[in-house]
Amino acid sequence: MGKVFFLCAWLQWSALSFSIWAQQSLYWDMQQSTPVSTMATLQVSSLEQGNNYGNTSFFTTLSVSQNYTGASGGNNAGLAARPGALSIASSGSAYIGVSLTPPSGFRIRLLSIAFGSRSTASGPTRWGLFSSADQFTNPHHTATMQANSTWSWQQSPSLSLLATQPLALRIYGYEGTGAAAINIANWRIDDLTIHYQLEAISLPVSWLYVRAASSQYGVHLRWATANEINNKEFQIERSTDGIFFVSVAKVEPAQIDSDGAFSYSVVLSVSYIPFLLTPNIRQLYFDRAAQRLEVLITGTAGCKQLALYNAMGQLVKRQNVVAVMMDAGVGCRIGTMGLPAGIYYLVVSADGQRSEGKAVQLY
């Protein structure tokens, strides 16, 4: 009996719900102001050295990071922080900032933030995460830190900050008690890590019905609307993961208004046989206690191979996995015992297809 391969095609029109992308990460090793890697759909600004007390080099090799798991060493980001209570005004408390812009039709959910920190005797003793969601008025999290010139790992608890527009984040350092000197960095940050997820939002409209059925020739679609006034065309979109949609057909008249406005229908799922999909890593998690990576793969079937590469692009681990894909995906794992802490990239291969490399940090 031959193998049966299922392709899960999502047919999108209007919608009363949203789809969720698996957790993603942004990571800065401070070799430059941009993250090591990012999703092409998410716009990430360069890091900002805000409210600096005088002029200091942003990235230097002075006082390299150490004393916490995963410290990358090398460059770190330095700030000259003024002493005293929090002030978000110009010439107030120093901060390191970044802006995240979700793609059209998506919202971003901030899940957590973490970084290595070193504060000198004149540096800040507290840090706080603020955002443009409320004009940097209230902290999403604050924590104390030691002003003793020693590196330590700072991490927020689970967060749930949502934004559909560009979201500016700032990590302020404040409540320093020493005598800060102008043009002298007294607070350093390294290995900044932001965990987030993108959520595809579909907007509600009024439809009579939308139906889809598979056959040996493909997928048959039928729909009806209560009214169509000043419409241009229907656009039929297809997705292999329920998140990214591409237009596959157009039908006139339309649910796109002549002024360019548009709306989507409900999202339908149809399984059919003829095609294979490029393997897709939907979830990737480092189980530190078990010293392994837990992986959720969708998009193909049969024999899969997991390959782990270091930041230099060198293959450090390879493992074959035999599994049959279900609509929800299959879980795989690959051991990381003996690998040093740092950033790695996982690639999945199956049936001549390869996934894009997905970054993960071992610590």
Distance between the ends: 45 Å
Give me the CATH fold name of the largest domain.
Jelly Rolls
The count of β-strands is 28
Looking at the overall shape, the CATH architecture of the largest domain is Sandwich
CATH class category of the largest domain: Mainly Beta
**Average pLDDT metric:** 80
Q: Provide the β-strand percentage band.
A: over 45%
For the sheet with most strands, the description reads:
8 strands, antiparallel
Element pattern in H and E: EEEEEEEEEEEEEEEEEEEEEEEEEEEE
The number of helical segments is 0
**What is the total number of structural domains?**
3
Q: Indicate the multimeric state.
A: single chain
Shape, per Cα inertia axes: globular
CATH superfamily of the largest domain: Galactose-binding domain-like
Radius of gyration over all CA atoms, rounded: 24 Å
Describe the protein in words.
- By secondary structure, this protein is mainly beta.
- It has three domains: 7-17 and 202-272, no CATH class; 19-201, Jelly Rolls (Sandwich); 280-362, Immunoglobulin-like (Sandwich).
- It contains no helices and 28 strands.
- It has strands at 7-12, 18-20, 24-28, 43-44, 48-50, 59-60, 76-79, 95-101, 106-119, 126-131, 141-144, 152-155, 161-163, 167-174, 187-201, 207-215, 218-225, 234-239, 246-251, 267-272, 280-287, 292-298, 302-310, 315-323, 330-335, 342-350, 353-354, 358-362.
- Strands 2, 3, 6, 7, 9, 12, 13 and 15 form an eight-stranded antiparallel beta sheet that branches. Strands 4, 5, 8, 10, 11 and 14 form a six-stranded antiparallel beta sheet that branches. Strands 23, 24, 26, 27 and 28 form a five-stranded antiparallel beta sheet that branches.
- A hairpin with a 6-residue loop joins β18 and β19 (246-251).
- The model is unreliable at 1-20, 254-259, 272-276 and 324-328 (pLDDT under 50).
